Amino acid sequence: MKRALTADGAHSLYDAGSGVTMAFVQMSMGELLANLQTNFGKDFSNYRLSCIQRRVALRMSTLKIATLDDYMAYLTGNPKEIEQLLDTVTIHVTEFFRDAEVFDAVAKDILPAIVSRKLHSPSRTIRVWSAGCSTGEEAYSLAILIIRHLRANGIELALEVYGTDVSKEACAVAREGIYAARKVEGVPGEARRKYFEAKGPDYRVVSEVQRCVKFSVHDLFLPSPFSLLDLVVCRNVLIHFDHAVRNDVLGRFHAALGDHGMIILGKSEAVMGSALARYELIDPRNKIYKKIVRRDS
Known about the structure:
- It contains 10 helices and 10 strands.
- By secondary structure, it is α/β, with parallel strands linked by helices.
């Protein structure tokens, strides 16, 4: 009997509330996940099962495929579909200066403290990581915010903003730095005029900003490629992971941050469990945490 998957991840031939249905769905999804790892080297086991079910159902609906068996067969015959699935699983909503209140908090509370430390430190480089950057809007927004602050206060410091995402396609778009006009509507007028230039019907991030931002493909389940960071921004990404995996990722962020480093999570996310020993919540509304440094006495 073929296994059909509905949009909410339930088996279409059984009652959604029955234990038989859920066990059967998890078994069939387990087979799919094993297939993905064995044949494509893609490990989705760190993601919440409910998240995987919804995203697989979305891809099947888009392709008009009714059963998991047929989707497995389609994956085998169309290897590029694995990247489409990966993008569907990992992509998150993004826009320039998304959630203005968070950027206001960075400008008023976080950035002045970082700048003050840098001016009295041998290291005169501000280092920021946009983790799970998608197509780059967040990383560029952070760079623009910091550049504006430095210019407004006549401060000369170097700036390095790193944007990483597991999607090659998303990183390629980010590196281009070209966005549709509707994408830059949320950028404050003065900043839009100064840090974007028209390119046909689209807008391109100016070279001054692009020089400060480097994009690369990176899986958050792997060790951090960065160190001594002043700020990590990872919003609405951890929510897709199992709890144990979230703590592992938060541990990697902790190791990547400098002694006074801070991290910003999404509004619906929080540091929990064993990770609470590593971070102090300093802004509950905007989910801003400060790294706790424990030194052996």
